[in-house]
Amino acid sequence: MKNVTDSFVSLGHWPSAGSFGFNTDILATNPINLSVVLGVLIFFGKGVLNDLLDNRKQRILSTIQNSEELRRGAIEQLERARARLRKVEMEADEYRMNGYSEIEREKVNLINATSDSLEQLENYKNETLHFEQQRAINQVRQQVFQQALQGALGTLNSCLNSELHFRTISANIGILGSIEEITD
Which GO terms describe its cellular component (predicted)? Predict the structure, then answer.
């Protein structure tokens, strides 16, 4: 191995007198080497690079296509969601208005029912008062009648003697007899 490296090193010391050899001057040989390497890479790597770029281009295009389809789908979903939202908002407004109307109707019905109940209670109260007044009046009448009757009986008993008593009984029997004849 030492012989191989020595031969390269010794080649570098040859004088460049029109013969073929290695130029060890880095500044002079670097652009040439780079252009040769680039030329070989372009010539042989052109197909591979084109294939890689075509594959990358196809993946980017398919990604863009998928993204566009997803975007269209998202836009459609958004429009459907907006339409549903509008519909739900309209239904909510309708329910709200119907609810307010129903509440107002129930309120009016409740007020009317309460008013009717109060009227009925007032009528019952008035009827009860009238009934109690009539009952009290009847009781007072009965008491007055009983007192008057007792007073009249007391006056009659004190004023009647037996002869007057006998005549009164006879007159009453006569009246009863005439009533019997009429009914027969």
Answer: proton-transporting ATP synthase complex
Q: Which domain covers residue 136, as residue numbers?
A: 32-167
Within a domain: residue 6?
no
**What is the C-alpha to C-alpha distance for residues 19 and 1, in angstroms, rounded to an integer?**
25
DSSP state of 150: H
Tell me if 21 is assigned to some domain: no
Q: What's the distance, CA 53 to chain centroid?
A: 57
Query: Which backbone phi and psi does 23 adopt, to 5 degrees?
Result: -95, 120
- 3-state secondary structure string across 113-148: HHHHHHHHHHHHHHHHHHHHHHHHHHHHHHHHHHHH
Taking CA atoms, 22 is separated from 14, 16, 27, 53, 59, in Å, by 9, 9, 13, 37, 46
Task: Report the length, in residues, of the chain.
Answer: 184
In this prediction the pTM is 0.37
- Give domain status of residue 90, yes or no: yes
- Asked if the structure places residue 7 within a domain, the reply is no
Residues 101-150: pLDDT tens digits? 888 888 889 899 999 999 999 999 999 999 999 999 999 989 998 888 88
- Work out how many domains the chain is built from and give that number: 1
Are the CB atoms for 12 and 22 separated by under 8 Å?
A: yes
CB 16 within 8 A of CB 26: no
DSSP conformational letter for 160? -
